[in-house]
Design brief:
By secondary structure, the chain is α+β, with helices and mostly antiparallel strands. The protein has three helices and seven strands; from the N terminus they run αβαββββββα. A five-stranded mixed beta barrel has the order 2-4-5-7-6. β4 and β5 form a beta hairpin.
Length: 153
């Protein structure tokens, strides 16, 4: 009986160690992958921004992109709609792939990385969309009326 009890204790101990190891790996994985979204204005005013993995969005300032291979330096701009205050953020991207094709002047971009004390955002990922690609087509003179519109007499 004591030999059987010893095996149960060993088996239970092994299962406990495995469960704790899996919980630890799950916890560290969640902590590593979590990121916080901040605006450029919030980023400059939050002292805890230097210790977090962040996502920051804005428009790419025209003429600011300097790309060499898989690295790029550029400036993101954000304009507060209420006050028209303009905030900028210098971004240094070093990724395993070059920036996407939609990454151009005036494109909306979302960067993922860390903010350093020198005021530069060090990005590891860029997501961009070309504003003109998704904008509605302007109506042109002489265009056919919409199907729901009726002509009045």
């Amino acid at each position: 009986m004591s030999q059987s009890k010893g095996q149960i204790i060993k088996f239970g101990s092994a299962i406990t160690v495995i469960v704790f190891a899996l919980c630890y790996l799950a916890w560290t994985g969640v902590q590593e992958s979590k990121s916080y979204y901040m605006t450029i204005k919030e980023l400059h005013s939050d002292p805890s921004a230097y210790t977090k993995r962040l996502r920051v969005g804005g428009n790419v300032e025209p003429g600011s992109i300097h790309q060499v291979g898989t690295t790029a330096d550029f400036v993101l701009v954000e304009v507060d709609p209420k006050t028209s205050e303009r905030s900028t953020l210098r971004v240094n991207y070093k990724g395993t792939e070059p920036p996407p094709d939609t990454f151009k002047d005036n494109a909306q971009a979302l960067v993922l990385g860390e903010f350093s004390k020198d005021g530069t955002f060090h990005a590891r990922e860029i997501q961009a969309k070309c504003a003109s690609k998704y904008a509605a087509q302007p109506a042109t003179a002489g265009a056919a009326p919409s199907p729901s519109g009726a002509k009045g007499n």
